[in-house]
Amino acid sequence: xxxxxxxxxxxxxxxxxxxxxxxxxxxxxxxxxxxxxxxxxxxxxxxxxxxxxxxxxxxxxxxxxxxxxxxxxxxxxxxxxxxxxxxxxxxxxxxxxxxxxxxxxxxxxxxxxxxxxxxxxxxxxxxxxxxxxxxxxxxxxxxxxxxxxxxxxxxxxxxxxxxxxxxxxxxxxxxxxxxxxxxxxxxxxxxxxxxxxxxxxxxxxxxxxxxxxxxxxxxxxxxxxxxxxxxxxxxxxxxxxxxxxxxxxxxxxxxxxxxxxxxxxxxxxxxxxxxxxxxxxxxxxxxxxxxxxxxxxxxxxxxxxxxxxxxxxxxxxxxxxxxxxxxxxxxxxxxxxxxxxxxxxxxxxxxxxxxxxxxxxxxxxxxxxxxxxxxxxxxxxxxxxxxxxxxxxxxxxxxxxxxxxxxxxxxxxxxxxxxxxxxxxxxxxxxxxxxxxxxxxxxxxxxxxxxxxxxxxxxxxxxxxxxxxxxxxxxx
Length: 476
Fold this sequence. Notes:
Distance between the termini: 31 Å
Shape: globular
Strand content: 15-25%
Oligomer: single chain
CATH topology of the largest domain: Rossmann fold
Number of helices: 14
Largest sheet: 8 strands, mixed
Helix content: 25-40%
CATH class of the largest domain: Alpha Beta
CATH architecture of the largest domain: 3-Layer(aba) Sandwich
Low-confidence stretches: 1-28
Number of domains: 2
Number of strands: 21
């Protein structure tokens, strides 16, 4: 029989509303006053349900403004902007920043460009960084162009473990300080920078609106996570070192296969005719047509290759796309994840037990959260989708997955109606979710992105007999 299950954030809900005179007095205040007057600790420690769309919109605006003020008044982050360098652990990421044109209505697009080089003396990578500071800049009409200096002088200088947290930190700072549109953040790179784009994009696919990889080698990354992230590969036809050229075509073929099997996976390959490693243009500000191989799959097989002409300007290609923060369908392989364990929002909490409730960035992907996963078991590939018409969520987790949170936004489902939940082919429950200020606070602190602030959630756990059940989330 179909059940209607209320999903709360804590057991003892009504008791929690009575605990603490400060919070009790806040129950009669306006949402703006509550959010402005309470610390993030208080907002995270108590439940306050939101009754309608107006309340949710008001709370979202007030919470983001509170968080933005916390970031822009943070002495450490002010210094990072002034010195244009950010440190995490023992690694420091230096960056240049150029701003061009009038700010669009939703904020500036952000273009993060990664330089070439790699295993070389520091002065070689420094010179490559200097070149990347201007390489794509002339093609930007209105936006913020940032060139990051690799954090090491090794082959993987753009994607050592610390790099991923530094990219999160950089983006979050630029959204708060420079009015960047978080749905228009792009990544691009050439040579060793292309190596970085190959690695970074699938591991942080929900950060990027689109990516351009030029003249790099992918070092055996998988592409399942790019279902919603447009990806452009650019390569010289005769750039044969490390088999960059043939691997680029093989990657294009693999993306074709994924697209045919699942749809999604917007991608293109510009195999520059006659091109070596760097004898072709992906940055022509004049937008002149460039010769590319029209049938790269045939060329890979040793068959006759024909040519065509395209505008191969990377900025132009990227500008076609914006991030959809709440995609209707997700394919996620959590093992292809960045080593992102630091929540930047945790610094605005004082209670260590509350900090422990935040999911790590590597556990989050669009509107899914695998933090309830127990132990070090690889959760495997999960497919998830929602249908606004039927107000339903469908999940297809791997056999090894044992825990999962579904994070919900008003653009995904109607909170006034029960949400139909299906796992695999089994109709589980119809769940009555309740938007909650606490969930909004936690998810904002987890990723520092107003578009990943979720109003409600459903937590699921697999039982010993293999069945899935809806549970009340418990503090981690």
